[in-house]
């Protein structure tokens, strides 16, 4: 074989080697967007349509589902993560605190704002994530990426400026949710080293450490009592949706970790923004809680344009962070 033929073959091998990572990046982003889309709709139905009064209790159900699914999967050798030792809390910190803050503020804000305005205000997660990735992870992004991010924020400002259903408590909760989400995404990316806890270990031990403190908060605030006294527990449709929310809570946490693992925390935030604008469009047609205005509609479209521009830049290779090797799925005999 000639040198040219060898070079051509090497190029083909290199291209085929890159293909799985590109597929993983795309599929993980689509998986996260789908799960995030579905859980907002289900939680909105539980907290508003059924008027379920206990968002913290719902979060506990999602944590419990995560623990059970991951533990059973570990017992059946479907996945692997390290057994507990005294170093794990140190390795995880501050993720458990960010995890519970993200959970509670997210569930609380969903119930206090109209669906379209909730999705608009969640856009502020994106510049916070960009800032934290720059500070904590040392990432650098191109000017085009930064412009795309701030296009999304410009659209959010325009849309929020016409909010005719202002709710101060809802705004406070959603901005807290933005801060917790950004910090949680960046620190999760930092903690997912397969040689340490790995993505499954981060998910499992986060849920384990925070389910008891969350339960204490639920009891002390009366959230648990309201949940036990809720009069829809005999309604089969409500129970199905509650269990579906718990399962989707696990899928959302898992898909968030996967998307950050194969892409970046910023990409995960932008995928969430695109998903949120899609929900806003749906909220205009169904749900009955959208108050139309020209500014709000124009702002939503600017948000979508910025998100799609970011996606194009990402897929065209202007945002191409080094892809991790998924060591958790490598057979043990190949690791040695």
From TrEMBL:
A Gene Ontology term for the protein's cellular component: membrane
Coiled coil regions in record: none
Recorded topology in the membrane: Multi-pass membrane protein
Keywords annotated in UniProt: Membrane, Transmembrane, Transmembrane helix
A matching Pfam family: TPT
Regions that span the bilayer: 26-46, 52-72, 141-159, 171-188, 200-221, 233-254, 261-284, 290-312
Boundaries of every Sugar phosphate transporter domain copy: 28-311
Locations listed in the record: Membrane
UniProt-listed InterPro entries: Sugar_P_trans_dom, TPT_transporter
Keyword Metal-binding: no
Superkingdom of the organism of origin: Eukaryota
Name of this chain's protein: UDP-N-acetylglucosamine/UDP-glucose/GDP-mannose transporter isoform X1
